[in-house]
């Protein structure tokens, strides 16, 4: 019997839909793949310099080996589904690296609004890094640790 996933009812992923890293893995920084699409897509696999991301076949959702992942963020901007986030926890703060394709583009030091998967405001966040990866901006924000697995977008 197939279990109905939360996102099939709400359109929004829940933590129970994801394979989550351990606290130790979050402390070193790892990519969390929130890709559930069974479509032929694998740029994250090709972008990973340590071969941590793999797929059973071209249509299978990607899986990250958190022990191999270095949290380098190369996979974040290359995902056409904007479904990859790098999380690093350090000294009570979480650094969330996310893809961003809106205007205006925030600047380092800006305070922005941290949004959850439903687009609901959760907490303020400080922008710590802004880089371009292809056509996608990759933004790193700092939030309190308890928001590490919740914040998935920002509002400038």
Number of helices, where a helix is a run of at least 4 consecutive DSSP H or I residues: 3
Rg? 15 Å
- What fraction, in percent, of the residue positions are helical? 10-25%
For the terminal residues, how far apart are their CA atoms?
44 Å
Give the strand content: 25-35%
| Oligomeric state of shown chains | single chain
The number of E-state strands comes to 9
Helices and strands, in order, run as HHEHEEEEEEEE
The gross shape turns out to be globular
User: Could you give a short account of the major beta sheet?
Assistant: 7 strands, antiparallel
Outline the low-pLDDT stretches. Answer: none
Structural class: mainly beta
Mean pLDDT across residues: 95
Strand order of the largest sheet: 1-4-5-8-7-6-9
Provide structural commentary.
The structure is a single chain. This protein has 156 residues and is mostly beta strands. The chain is 10% helix and 34% strand. It has three helices and nine strands; from the N terminus they run ααβαββββββββ. The protein has helices at 6-10, 23-28, 43-47; strands spanning 30-33, 53-54, 63-64, 84-90, 93-100, 111-115, 121-133, 136-144, 153-155. The strands form two sheets. It has a seven-stranded antiparallel sheet with strand order 1-4-5-8-7-6-9. The longest helix has 6 residues, at 23-28. The chain starts with 5 loop residues before the first helix and ends with a strand. The model has no long low-confidence stretch (mean pLDDT 95).
């Amino acid at each position: 019997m197939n279990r109905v996933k939360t996102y099939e009812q709400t359109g929004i992923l829940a933590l129970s839909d994801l394979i989550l890293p351990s606290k130790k893995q979050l402390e070193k920084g790892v990519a969390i793949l929130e890709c559930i699409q069974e479509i032929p897509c694998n740029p994250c696999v090709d972008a990973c310099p340590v071969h941590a991301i793999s797929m059973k076949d071209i249509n299978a959702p990607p899986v990250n080996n958190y022990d191999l992942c270095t949290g380098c963020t190369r996979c974040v901007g290359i995902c056409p589904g904007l479904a990859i986030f790098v999380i690093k926890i350090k000294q009570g703060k979480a650094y969330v690296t996310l893809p961003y394709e809106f205007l205006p583009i925030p600047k380092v030091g800006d305070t922005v609004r941290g949004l959850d998967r439903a687009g609901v405001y959760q907490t303020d966040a400080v922008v710590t890094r802004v880089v371009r990866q292809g056509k996608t901006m990759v933004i790193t924000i700092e939030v309190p640790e308890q928001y590490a697995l919740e914040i998935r977008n920002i509002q400038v």
